[in-house]
Amino acid sequence: MKASLQAPLQALALAGLFFLAFRFPAPSGLGVHEPLLAFLVPALALAAAYRGLKAGWLYLAFLLGLAGIFAFVPATLASKGPMPYAAALGASLLFWGYEALGFLAVTLAGRTAFRRWGFAAGALAAALALLLWETLAFHVYPWSWGAPYGALPLLARSAAFLGSPGLGAWSWGCGGLLAAALLRPEPLSPALKAAALWAGVPTVLGLAWFLLPQGPPRHLDVMMVQPNFDPGVRRPGMEADHWRRTDRLLAEAGWPRSGRRTLVLWAESSVLGRDDARPDLRLAEEARSRGVAWLYGTEGAPPGTPYLLWNLVRGEADGAPAFLQAKTEPMPFGEAIPGPAFLREPLERSLGLLSQVPGPLTDQSTFQVATPEGPLGIHPLICSEALMPDRTARGLALAGGDLLANHTNDGWFERSAATDLHAAQIRLRAVESGRPLLRATLTGKSGRFNADGTWQLWGEARSEGGWVFPLDWRVRRTPARWVGLPALLGAILALGLAAVAWRARRMSP
Q1: Residue 350 falls within a domain, yes or no?
Q2: How many folded domains does the chain comprise?
Q3: Fewer CB in 10 Å around end: N or C, the chain?
Q4: Assessment of whether the complete model's pTM goes beyond 0.85
Q5: Is 112 exposed, middle or buried (0-12, 13-18, 19+ CB in 10 A)?
Q6: CB within 8 A of 434, min separation 6: which ones?
Q7: According to the 3-state scheme, what is the secondary structure of 426-492?
Q8: What is the pLDDT of residues 180-233, one digit of tens each?
Q9: Which residues contact 91 (CB under 8 A, 6 or more apart)?
Q10: In this structure, are 503 and 468 located in the same domain?
């Protein structure tokens, strides 16, 4: 092979493997490749960097991989923005390019530490840099390198101890050890040791999951309605349409049943065009007359404004005051222009936009429902909030809850891979929190994710559906539900790196 072709071919191969690591569902129908490539891609990227592959080629590899993973972004921006396709492609390049810079920085941090202080320092530096990039940097679409571990329940359960950011750091740290092994004259033995370490620790943690303490048994009958409404379209009769579908499912299932509570879930944006932040006794009566608890996505006006700028979830049950929770972290650029008001407001005026207003996250942010076993808390995560491990942990720490509900509207992305990517990236929230996560979507794919790492998705993108199922579980008390876990892991990695660097300096002539 000509030397001039080695670098571009390396970059293309790395980009292809990067794409496949986050390709969900797996083309084979199995998820084995996801966690394996989440380990091998950092190893190959770091090995190439250690051997001297220029930063530009590494950056191109990450950029192309991200362009493959998020290939749906230009068409979405062009059709839903709306904007000219050239402008949509330019905005997509900025998104892909920014995220690629982060992974390049992680790789270069590992290379710098490796050259100065050795293979252990390179692994620790890469792990620490990845953790900092995921948890502290600004992201338009929050996503985690640890998400591929959710493909295999045994490995997924290790997220109960390390969290998704911790698993991402583990991939890059072990990848650094494998990268150093590949540089040795006889790489087989150290490479096998690195691979065994990478797989062994999550496997042991996945088995240790069964030893975690559990809460009392909980029981619920769950109903989800997926109407396949066009996203963002406000029209009369949206609620009535949902109730027609819901009543049919209730009749077919013979619910509510004696001795069990029934929860009706509707997706984000199920009812639009009215201020559901206001009191409305009729809504409480809709739930009471059917004997159900009802949690649905809608919109409302924040205090002091006439505009419907809250992306809202409302709950009705037991004749209690309505439960209201607005999205606390609107997606940057998609739902709100980020930045301080003096920069944001002129841009909104020039574009003719109004940003969504974030809602507060408080000790009242969990929907409480009476059940035969006692009160049961359902903590809602609105669309992209479920992508954020810290948002889930903070919400549960403040308000508690026995169950997570993700209300989402992926219809903006039509039949692209976006809804699968979203599902793959949120599935570890159930394991981290030790609670089931129910995913109710407006247009598909709805599903359920269990605390043991198993999951189901139903239907296809842009499809109608309705699902009824009994849910029986016990809450697991997981270390990953602690808000301070990423900071603790970062401190351990930083101290380890400092110790290795100090020892290397002492031993240098």
Answers
A1: no
A2: 2
A3: C
A4: yes
A5: middle
A6: 160, 212, 451, 475, 476, 477, 478, 481
A7: HCHHHHHHCCCEEEEECCCCEEEECCCCCEEEECCCCCCEEEEEEEEEEEECCHHHCCCHHHHHHHH
A8: 999 999 999 999 999 999 999 999 999 999 999 999 999 999 999 999 999 889
A9: 73, 74, 77, 83
A10: no
